[in-house]
Amino acid sequence: MKTRIIRIGNSRGVRIPKVLLEESGLDGDVELRASEGKILIERPPEARAGWSEAARLVRERGEDGLIDEPTPTEFDDNEWAWE
């Protein structure tokens, strides 16, 4: 489908026909990416997408421990008590 780049204030834009929006399922926020000769409009990734898998892999590799050993404070040594 052919369209034109139009002026919108100091910016430029395109009108996206309703039928294309319905076909794509896009609504609300979108993400834009540009490469040579094209602009891609797509649904943004879900927040924290892939975090669960990444955490599982970190655990499998045994890399889920503390980076540094805890440094006890005076409170830990003298004041803290389990009740």
Structure, described:
The protein is 28% helix and 19% strand. It contains three helices and four strands; from the N terminus they run ββαββαα. A two-stranded antiparallel ribbon has the order 1-2. A two-stranded antiparallel ribbon has the order 3-4. A hairpin with a 2-residue loop joins strand 1 and strand 2. The N and C termini lie far apart (72 Å).
Ends distance: 72 Å
Query: Oligomeric status of the shown chains?
Result: single chain
Gyration radius, rounded: 26 Å
Unreliable sequence segments: none
For the report, how would you describe the main beta sheet?
2 strands, antiparallel
What percent of residues adopt helix (DSSP H or I)? 25-40%
Average of the residue pLDDT scores: 91
Topology:
Elements: E1 6-8, E2 11-13, H1 18-24, E3 31-35, E4 38-42, H2 51-60, H3 74-79
Properties at a glance:
single chain; about 80 residues; alpha+beta; two-stranded antiparallel ribbon; two-stranded antiparallel sheet
What is the gist of this entry?
It contains three helices and four strands; from the N terminus they run ββαββαα.
